[in-house]
Write a structure and sequence with these properties.
Strand content: 25-35%
Mean pLDDT: 90
Helix content: 10-25%
CATH architecture of the largest domain: 2-Layer Sandwich
Low-confidence stretches: none
Enzyme class: isomerase
Structural class: alpha+beta
CATH class of the largest domain: Alpha Beta
Pfam families: S4 (PF01479)
InterPro entries: PsdUridine_synth_cat_dom_sf, RsuA_PseudoU_synthase, S4_RNA-bd, S4_RNA-bd_sf
Keywords: RNA-binding
Catalytic activity: uridine(2604) in 23S rRNA = pseudouridine(2604) in 23S rRNA; uridine(35) in tRNA(Tyr) = pseudouridine(35) in tRNA(Tyr)
Shape: elongated
Number of strands: 14
Number of domains: 3
Length: 234
């Protein structure tokens, strides 16, 4: 005889004597286990013999859309960035305090991508509010880059590069070493920055974005990501 099954949210609603919508929130928030395993799909089928339980630490809350900080490795194409955000590439010591859920990896889009010759901080999000804000205002906050260069520099090199950064605002450039420039400014375009260096005799060997506004790369390893903590502002 075949066991009959029913949707997990229906089973949980009956078990807790609550509305189906409330049961779905418990499930989608990752608080429900079936035979000891977390199941986040309300439509999952369960049998009468299976044990359904809610975590003791469960909190009833709205499922928030996720935003991630990714360290884009050099050479990675823009269309591969969202796919790079996977459970196995999450930073092991993620400082955000956000609980990872399966639904966080759905419908991800990239904001402020870097060209393949650059590396560093990019934002990946499923939150339309974040994506819209960065599309409209993401270049109006400071961006910070480290640019590794080779070639002969002169006393006037920094001034010439700064003058060549057409459209950029509040730009500050300094030497970090004989072959590394630190560039900070608003409306910085990495392609224009690269060209400005090249037309002034410096070949760009590497370019890394360290910061967008108040959000920094910190010590996030290349190819890894962590959640953007709730309440963080750019």
């Amino acid at each position: 005889m075949t066991d009959t099954t029913e949707r997990l949210d229906k089973r949980l609603a009956r078990q807790l004597d609550c509305a189906r919508g409330q049961a779905r929130q418990w499930i989608e928030n990752g608080w429900v286990r079936v035979d000891g395993q977390v199941v986040e799909q309300p439509q999952a089928q369960v049998s009468a013999q299976q044990q359904v339980a809610v975590d003791d630490n469960a909190e009833q809350q709205k499922v928030e859309m996720a935003t991630m900080v990714l360290h884009q490795p050099a050479g990675m194409a823009v269309d591969a960035l969202a796919e790079a955000v996977r459970p196995e590439s999450q930073r092991s010591d993620d400082p955000s305090g956000v609980r990872r859920l399966q639904r966080h990896f759905q419908h991800l889009q990239v904001a402020l991508p870097l060209p393949p010759y650059a590396s560093g901080l990019v934002i990946v999000s499923q939150d339309g509010r974040v994506l819209s804000h960065l599309a409209s205002h993401g270049l109006e906050v400071e961006h910070e880059y480290l640019v590794d260069v080779s070639g002969q520099a002169s006393t006037w090199t920094i001034g010439k590069i700064q003058a060549a950064l057409r459209g950029a605002q509040a730009v500050k450039i300094s030497w970090q070493s004989e072959q590394r420039l630190r560039v900070v400014g608003k409306r910085l375009d990495p392609a224009v920055l690269r060209h400005a260096c090249q037309e002034n005799g410096l070949a760009v060997e590497a370019m890394r974005r360290l910061r967008i506004g108040q959000v920094g790369l910190s010590k996030l390893p290349a190819g890894q990501w962590h959640y953007l903590a709730a309440g963080t502002r750019f």
